[in-house]
Each structure stands twice: as structure tokens, then as C-alpha cells.
Amino acid sequence: MKKYLVTLVPVLMLSFQPDSQTARAPKGSNAGVQLSSGGEDLKPTVSQEKVSQVVSKLLTTYHYRKVRLNDSLSSVVWDNYLKEIDNNKSYLLASDVSSLEKYRTQIDEALVNGDLTPAYDLFNIYRKRFQERLEYVQETLQKPFNFSVDETFNTDRQKATWPKSVEEQNEIWRKLLKNQALELKLSGKKDSAVYAMLRERYKNQERALGRFRSEDVFQIYLNSFTEALDPHTNYLSPRSADRFNQEMSQSLEGIGAMLREDGEYIKIVEVLPGGPAFKSKLLNKEDRIVGVAQGDNGQIVSIVGYQVDDAVKLIKGPKGTVVRLQIQPATALAGAPAKEIRLVREKVKLEEQRAKKEVIEVSENNRTFKIGVVNIPIFYRDFEAARRRDADMASTTSDVKKLIDELKAQKVDGIVIDLRYNGGGSLVEAINLTGLFIPKGPVVQVRESTGETEVYNDPDPSVSYDGPLAVLVNRFSASASEIFAAAIQDYKRGVIVGEQTFGKGTVQQLLDLSQWLPREPEKVGQVKMTVQKFYRINGSSTQHKGVVPDIELPSALTAEEYGESSQPSALPWDQIASTRYEASRGLDEKTVNRLRDKYEQRLKSDPELKQLSQELAEFKKAKQNTMVSLQETKRRKEREEAEKKRAAMNKVTQTGDDEAESDSTTTPSTTTAAPKKKKDLYLNETGRILIDLIAFQSRNQ
């Protein structure tokens, strides 16, 4: 099967890509027949029934995780589907869910037999309930809310139960609408505008649901099955497959971000290196976009309830034009106000994705050290140029080698490889880059579902840099980044600093289903399936756990919220036999412990680190509170407190400038003065750790 798959589809997905999040956004096209949300029920096609049978056979036979379709898996699929249809448990009634409970243990047989009745029965009930909610919304918004009443609203209903009656549901929706109205009011909107915007918001959702097609329902349902196996295995409908292939092959003008629908919101899946969003440092993964405005003076248009394609049409635009976005940051506390940012659209340029260097000065013990920093936003490789054997092809390894030579010429005391937010990329480059710092030897092991393991080696005995080395990572360093960081750690070649990495240690393969349904007249879509797993040279998997730094810096992110371990169906961590390799003698466990002790001392005594640690701890605690007040005076105070706590997060973002962030909603000043650079506390502390390493190693020589 390995050769068969590789022969048919030579597309391996290594990097931290949108995965299930892209595939789970099927509501993304204005094309097709207009369907009223109160019209005829949607029904499956004969083609979809055939696809269901093929996909269930493929995944249960060839997926890395060998699973059996049984009642237990069926129950998980059904829960997934319920969550996708009504994540906040606000549309369906408990009686609706109970009436369809008969399907819970029937999904396995239904998938094998191509019976899609469960999927469409649930969706059509949801659509009916949606129409009822819309009628309630329009009626409720005829009268203004009383914001002097002291009551609260829970912004997170994922752990709630479905309402048992229409009256209970109406009360949930009354508070939900009141909360949305209060958010708009506190953002400065006049009362008349508040209610007009909310009415339009739900009209947008009605239009979006009216454009739903049978293939959209089918994709949601089939992904409820695929994601029960692992988060990176997905079914892409024909339309989603076309969009995915375009995103993989084209550079589109816009802000340089990949989006998906997340309930009624548009969420950032990936910030592309080299794009306006990436360079601004103002937009991050998991942020929500709630409004869009054109130019510096255009009116903000709420996109809550928009389909992803409709949102993209507003955000994309000609190069050089301005777009303003209203953002709810992923780090925002409940009730915090939206943040407005200003971006200039442009194409994502390859040269902007390439590695860059800088030299920072770090003072310690009355001495100033020069630390070279190499920032690698993605592991890139121009495969077409490589086939042509172009001498100047774009390559992470060749670029970094040049930068290292330049840094050595500048006589830096040590080098930091900055992999924060690097979601992966070329496996070849991860291996070759490791080779710049070690003599030849194994770098990573790749295991097939059959148990067959292959070791990937760096064959080059030369070393470009043998001096003091640190690798800086965060929770969004994934895949190829983890392979590099793990190898450096296993060889004891450098100290790993930062946060526990993402934990994506799997490889996906893209399968065109038309190969199994060659006579089908309609397009049938594609499946992205997990087929391999990565292991470190010491035998430990990078899956789930990622790479745990030698020295962990303060973080506001938790494993329960972000990373592979936050996904219930993530493949587990495990271990295989270690391969043979010779570790460096420059960084033993005793030295690492001494580095950690020095850092712990600074964490207790250094004012900035101490304050940062305290603020992040308070932030994490505050984020657990999802209750907000619906009384205007109390809510204002809550927003002020939320903003103060979120300010701590700005201290751990990568370098930007204070002026640019604070004035991001206005036209840039014409002054030529260079903006003052923010202090990057993480990078600065990594430099200090590297200085400690230099001191320890010099004493041992």
C-alpha cells in the first residue's frame, strides 16, 4: 500500500497546516442554487453515498491508526457531528437530540452501507430550529435592552446542556442578544446602530444557511468521522478541494492569512510568513475577525455570521490598498473589547519568508555580549529549482549557512535559532539544517503504520557552526521545527528554550477519490489521511508531547487549549527503539541543570521577568472565567480589567513597535523617524541563558 499510495499521490503534508480546520469550513461558496432556510429538506446524492463507502473503507484499512468501525467509534462520530452542527447548544432542543439518539450506535453500519440518513435528519432539524431562532431574534430586537439590570451571561456554552423547552431557549437567546448589543454599545455605537447591526448580522446568517448545499452537509458529517481518527485526517468536498489546491499553489493578494469558519465567527488558521499580517505582528493564529473596513475611512462591516468565502472577498483586495480589521484576539478575556488593526494588502513574497539575521547586545555581569539571531519563519525549499539544480535556489539551509558565515565574521559570542511560530515545511530542509550544527548522523525516524521504520540521515560530515547555540521555540513551533529542535536537543548540541512545542508528529497524504470512483460523472473530492509518524533519534515520538524545552519560559498558553494535546483524537505519544548516534559533550545534564538554576534565580529577582511571570499567571486564571456582566457599569469595569491583564501578552509577542500597534487604526505618520523597537523579553532571556552557557563551557575547557 505504501508504494501504491506514493505512486498515485506524491503529495505529503508535513507542515503545521490548517488540517481539520480548513476542511471543516464547508460553508464557503456563493455558487450553486439558492436555498431558503425554510425550504425543502436537503438530501444526499447517490455520488455522496458511494464516497461514504469508499472513505470508510480507505480509512479503516490504510490510516496510521488501525481502527474498527464499531459502536464505540460510532458514538464518537455522532458526538462530533452534534458539536459541529450546534457547538454552543443554542439551536437544538433536548427533545431534538433525544429523538435522534437512535443513530448513535448506527453510524458505523451507515457509513459502510452509504446510508446518510443520520446526517441529513439532524441537519434539517437544525435548519428548522435556526429559522425559529431568527424569528425570535427579529422580534426581540424591536425593543431596547435594559442595561441597568444586574445579571450575568456565560460566554461559553460548550459544557452546557441543550435547553429542555422553548422558554428556556428564549432566555438563553435573550441574554446572548443582550450581550452582543452591550458589546456594540460599549464600542461606541449609537443605540439605533446597535440594533440595526444585530438585525443585519442574523440576516447574514440566514442568507449563509440559505446557500447551504448537500455537499456542505456531507463534508461536515464525513469530517465528524475522519476527525474521530485524528485531527489531521479530513475529507474535502470538491469545492473545498479546489480551494485547498489553489491555496497550496498560488500567491494571492491580501493580508497573508488562512481563514476558517468557527461557529458564527471567522477565525485565523494560519498567518503566512512574508504576508502583511505576519510582518505587522498584530494578527495571530486563533484570533477572530469580527469586522472589516475598506481604506482608512471606510465603515466597519460586521462579518459575524459570514461564510468564509464572503469574508475573504472583503479582506482580499488589490496590492497597496488598506484594509482595517476588528479583531477578537485568541488571548482576549471574556467581555474584552475588539481591537482594530490596519494592514496594507500585498502579495506574500518568497523573499519575505526567507531566514533573516540580526545581532542583539545582551549585558550580563558588567559585560556586553553580541548574540547572533537567525529567525526562520518556515522551512522552505524551491523543489522545482532543486530539480533543475539551480545554484541560487531558495533553501532554508543554504540561506542560514550564509547568515551564519556573516555572523561569525561579525564575531558574535553565540547564536540563537528563533523558530517561534514556525509551523514547519520541508522535511529535507529540517534534516539539512540540523547538519549545519552536527557531524553526519541520523536526524529523524519515520514509521509506517505497518511498523516499518526508516532513519533519515544528514550525510555531510562538515559543520558550519560549532559554537554556543540556543534554539528558541513556542507553542506554535510545529512539525519540521520540532524535528530540528529535537535533534539539536538529542545531540546535546544546543540548549532549547521557550515553550513546549505544538506536538504534530504525523505526516498526511492527499488522495483523490476519483481514482476509486473512476466512472462517477461528478467530482467526488479528496481525503487527507495520516499515514506516517515521526520519532526522534532517541526513539521518542514528537507527536502529542512535542519538544519540551530544557528551560521553559513563562507562558500564557495551556496544553488544554492549544497544540496537538488539545485535540481529543490526537494520536498518542509513544516510543520506539533508539537509533545509534553520538551526542556532543558540550552540554551534559549537569550543565543544563546549572543553566536552569541560573534562570530560576533571575525569575525570582529580575523585575521584568518576575512581573511577566505574575501577570501571565493572573491572565491564565482570569481566562478560566467565562461569565460577564450584562449591567453596563459593571461590564465597563470588567473590560478595563481584561485589557490590563491582556497587556501582559503583548510583552511576549515577537518584536514590533509600540507606536505602530497603538496607531494601527490610523494613517501612518509622515515622519521619517524610526519607530522604537519593543523589547523582546523572550529573546533577551534566551540571550542571557546562552551567555550562561558560554561561561560554563569556558570554565570547563
Any descriptors?
hydrolase, six-stranded antiparallel β-sheet, 20 strands, alpha+beta, 701 residues, 40% helix, 16% strand, protease, single chain, TSP_N, globular, 23 helices
What does this structure look like?
With 701 residues, the protein is of the alpha+beta class. The protein has 23 helices and 20 strands. Strands 1, 3, 13, 14, 17 and 18 form a six-stranded antiparallel β-sheet that branches. Strands 4, 5, 6, 7, 8 and 9 form a six-stranded antiparallel β-sheet that branches. A hairpin with a 4-residue loop joins strand 13 (441-448) and strand 14 (453-458). Helix 8 packs across helix 9 (191-210). The chain is globular. Residues 1-38, 248-252 and 654-676 have low confidence and may be disordered.
List the helices and strands and how they pair.
Layout: H1 2-8, E1 12-13, H2 20-23, H3 46-62, H4 71-85, H5 94-99, H6 107-113, H7 117-140, E2 152-154, H8 166-186, H9 191-210, H10 214-226, E3 234-236, H11 238-249, E4 257-262, E5 265-271, H12 276-280, E6 288-294, E7 301-302, H13 308-315, E8 322-328, E9 339-344, H14 350-353, E10 356-364, E11 367-375, H15 383-388, H16 396-409, E12 414-418, H17 427-435, E13 441-448, E14 453-458, E15 469-473, H18 480-490, E16 495-498, E17 506-512, E18 526-535, E19 551-552, H19 589-605, H20 607-623, E20 627-629, H21 632-650, H22 658-662, H23 681-700
Parallel strand pairs: 11-12, 12-15, 15-16, 16-19
Antiparallel strand pairs: 1-17, 2-20, 3-18, 4-5, 5-6, 6-7, 6-8, 8-9, 10-11, 13-14, 13-18, 17-18
